[in-house]
Amino acid sequence: MTAERIDGKAFAALLRERVGALATQFEHKAGRKAGLAVVLVGEDPASQVYVRSKHKATVAAGMESFEHRLPADTSEADLLALVEQLNADEAVDGILVQLPLPGHLDDQAVIAAISPDKDVDGFHVTNAGRLAVGQSGFVPCTPLGCMMLLTDRLGDLSGLEAVVIGRSNIVGKPMAQLLLDANATVTIAHSRTKDLPGVVKRADIVVAAVGRAEMVKAEWLKDGATVIDVGINRLPPAEGEEKGRLVGDVDYAGAEGVASAITPVPGGVGPMTIAVLLRNTLVAAYRNAGLAVPEIL
Ligand SMILES: Nc1nc2c(c(=O)[nH]1)N[C@@H](CN(C=O)c1ccc(C(=O)N[C@@H](CCC(=O)O)C(=O)O)cc1)CN2
């Protein structure tokens, strides 16, 4: 079997296009553009790339982008003051603080300061709670993007066995919650799971979000499984290479021979993160303006 490659890049482009069309409708109805504020503290090279991509995608979708770049030694009090200012700014529908933050800053305190109704990352404890009890809030972008790819491919997930490898607040836990809401039978596996290969072998759906390069091997997979690879790991440069290759948490070359479908890295889940961020921002804008959120969002 050669697995179908799930093209997250193409899916994300379609989603961004749809959000762009709805953002124009929003502007006509509300008399203003939807707005996203992104805060970057420090000079982490990967974060700089992601923040630049978010800015470009926001503007391309016809929304207002407010970028705040702060020095690496910014104090927590100054960062919290900026978040407060953005909470009060009516032109700002969504607020995102790029992670990771420099070590002296407490991510949880910063996330807690964001108004839950502007928390388009879905990281605030209020939004985590809303997801847990089935209320509408904001769902973290990466797991929601994974879910869109899964339902596009599989349709109804009822009764399917899903294994999520990784238990982070940002990906693993919300992913498991979304799969459970879709009536899958869900196992969350992690570094202390006994017989991880045996657990993964049961799964019709595998979501790998551990952050360890090519850890999930072809032999672990059930024939015909659908594999969603959230990992983005850079290998050390091979001879003659300037930069190492990007790989996921799954051994793609091996898994391709066993799975029925798999997301590549790059070009799979990663691009969905930014497309869903635009979607969440537009949902926030509709809600903040007191307008009905279009169903197709
Ligand atoms: N506040 C947040 N911080 C972080 C988040 C987040 O959702 N909110 N997620 C990640 C980083 N991230 C967005 O912020 C992100 C990661 C990866 C991609 C992406 O498109 N990756 C490409 C490969 C990119 C490359 O060449 O390096 C791919 O997978 O095809 C987009 C966004 C951590 N921080």
UniProtKB/TrEMBL annotation:
EC number: 1.5.1.5, 3.5.4.9
A Pfam family of this chain: THF_DHG_CYH
Reactions mediated catalytically: (6R)-5,10-methenyltetrahydrofolate + H2O = (6R)-10-formyltetrahydrofolate + H(+); (6R)-5,10-methylene-5,6,7,8-tetrahydrofolate + NADP(+) = (6R)-5,10-methenyltetrahydrofolate + NADPH
Record keywords, A-Z: Amino-acid biosynthesis, Histidine biosynthesis, Hydrolase, Methionine biosynthesis, Multifunctional enzyme, NADP, One-carbon metabolism, Oxidoreductase, Purine biosynthesis
Alphabetical list of PROSITE patterns matching this protein: THF_DHG_CYH_1, THF_DHG_CYH_2
Domain Tetrahydrofolate dehydrogenase/cyclohydrolase NAD(P)-binding stretches: 140-287
Highest taxon of the lineage: Bacteria
InterPro entries per UniProt: Aminoacid_DH-like_N_sf, NAD(P)-bd_dom_sf, THF_DH/CycHdrlase, THF_DH/CycHdrlase_cat_dom, THF_DH/CycHdrlase_CS, THF_DH/CycHdrlase_NAD-bd_dom
All copies of domain Tetrahydrofolate dehydrogenase/cyclohydrolase catalytic, residue ranges: 6-121
SUPFAM superfamilies with a match to the protein in the record: Aminoacid dehydrogenase-like, N-terminal domain, NAD(P)-binding Rossmann-fold domains
Alphabetical list of CDD domains matching this protein: NAD_bind_m-THF_DH_Cyclohyd (cd01080)
UniProt binding sites for NADP(+): G166, R167, S168, I232
Pathway: One-carbon metabolism; tetrahydrofolate interconversion
Family, similarity comment: Belongs to the tetrahydrofolate dehydrogenase/cyclohydrolase family.
Function, as annotated: Catalyzes the oxidation of 5,10-methylenetetrahydrofolate to 5,10-methenyltetrahydrofolate and then the hydrolysis of 5,10-methenyltetrahydrofolate to 10-formyltetrahydrofolate.
Summary of subunit composition and partner proteins: Homodimer.
Protein name per UniProt: Bifunctional protein FolD
